Amino acid sequence: MILPIIAYGDPVLRKVGADLEKDYPDLKGLVANMWETMYNASGVGLAAPQIGLPIRLFMVDTSAFAEDEDLSLEEQNTLRGFKKVFINAYKEEETGEEWAFNEGCLSIPEVREDVTRNDTITLRYLDENFKEHKETYKGLLARVIQHEYDHIEGILFTDKLSSFKKRLLKGRLSNISKGKIKVDYRMRFPDAKKSR
């Protein structure tokens, strides 16, 4: 089932996600619905707060980036095969060089800005079978994971922009929260009191 994506301005996007228990109701169905929602919106990642649930769950499928000719063959191959669910993820460390990359977000449509992040992240998390993992990711894959991880911490990519950039975006962000935007996927707007 395709779920509406929560738009910028909704308080759920600012909540730190709660851990999931192994007996979380219909987790398999929720994960399936989130994949369907993400693909319907042409996303490469989706976090539970973006569908209105303040829990520590996000998913990433970077296949769409695999054809980027600016990337090394090794990075293309890593991105091509990467599809994963992260439950109760916690950041162990972020290291490496900082680099800027143009980011967007399904909850903040039609806004893209350069965001600076470290190039390496190490996470401890559970997969959908509640098996524990500790893994390190680098490059563009790390960036997508960092973006989705931020969602379960109540952080949006626009928070990482300069105060000048934030002032420039204020009107556009206000319009998004009021539903004054055209998108080709289902959204729920906090100030418009409607979904479409």
Automatic annotation (TrEMBL):
Residue stretches in coiled coil: none
Cofactor(s), names only, from the UniProt record: Fe(2+)
UniProt binding sites for Fe cation: C105, H147, H151
Catalytic residue positions: E148
Pfam families, sorted: Pep_deformylase
Stated family: Belongs to the polypeptide deformylase family.
Protein name per the record: Peptide deformylase
Lineage: Bacteria, Pseudomonadati, Bacteroidota, Flavobacteriia, Flavobacteriales
